[in-house]
Amino acid sequence: xxxxxxxxxxxxxxxxxxxxxxxxxxxxxxxxxxxxxxxxxxxxxxxxxxxxxxxxxxxxxxxxxxxxxxxxxxxxxxxxxxxxxxxxxxxxxxxxxxxxxxxxxxxxxxxxxxxxxxxxxxxxxxxxxxxxxxxxxxxxxxxxxxxxxxxxxxxxxxxxxxxxxxxxxxxxxxxxxxxxxxxxxxxxxxxxxxxxxxxxxxxxxxxxxxxxxxxxxxxxxxxxxxxxxxxxxxxxxxxxxxxxxxxxxxxxxxxxxxxxxxxxxxxxxxxxxxxxxxxxxxxxxxxxxxxxxxxxxxxxxxxxxxxxxxxxxxxxxxxxxxxxxxxxxxxxxxxxxxxxxxxxxxxxxxxxxxxxxxxxxxxxxxxxxxxxxxx
Length: 375
Fold this sequence. Notes:
Blueprint: H1 5-27, E1 35-46, E2 49-57, E3 75-82, H2 85-96, E4 99-101, E5 107-110, H3 119-122, H4 124-127, E6 137-141, H5 145-149, H6 159-172, H7 181-186, E7 193-202, E8 215-225, E9 228-234, H8 240-243, E10 251-258, E11 261-279, E12 282-295, H9 297-300, H10 305-330, H11 338-345, H12 347-353, H13 357-363, E13 365-374
Parallel strand pairs: 1-4, 1-5, 5-6, 6-7, 12-13
Antiparallel strand pairs: 1-2, 2-3, 7-8, 8-9, 10-11, 11-12
Helix pairs in contact: 11-12
């Protein structure tokens, strides 16, 4: 029986595919029991060396076969030191005799001592590992990353899941902004200002009859430009107007005062549009924000809708002016994304001032127009 040329070529192609899969599959096979499944990674710089704290899943822990472990912690912390982060990770592997797997990495926590001037060099261990998701969250500890990694916040889930959930919730509630690995990498040239949530652990006084677990909170948001931290920290309670300018922000809780009484309101972002105008060498950042104010039951009859509208609009306007002055004018930190809008709308001006944008930031002006819809 004679085979057609097409059939021969098809058979050879299939054989080649099978060979590729077989040899590639056996090239570097690591059993699950020989891996440290890293969910979070803390990085500190102490004594001229990097210290990494790997928060890994502990499959041999009691209750690890069930989704909820109410008796034992199902995480372990493995630490290592080295001149680079990669060397420190290798020491962790040598200490435990297992290979660290970063495919489940959800969070990278940085100590305040870590230099962010060259993020591509710092995160080289992520870039060379194709299993690492570039959208992994980045946070900063108000003390050391190792201390934050060692805190067990809850018995019903991995501590990493608590950290990420807290960051996500606070970003949605306009108390901080999320920072991803890709954002940090793009900030190396100084073209992008990134905001990093700073996490702190509060330890309430212990009750004799009840064990009170630590509370994780977003202490502030640090602004990083060109690897350097701006000398301004954004307080969660007073920066909603700035965070509303970013897509991740959806709502905010506010307390308004009228007639000597305090009332709680919830503000939801409906629309937000911003643009940059320039004339006579002065930049003007103009934003239009539409919000819906949801009054709680205790304020429905006590405060008139127009009063709520006025108080909320005034509060957000004050926050906007204050953060614009401190971030853009004083610290030259482009927290509002002016550089990107200037490049898109006025490319010639951008090219003329690309190397001296600080001069434009110093005299830049910000305007916020607010439309409040009260439920």
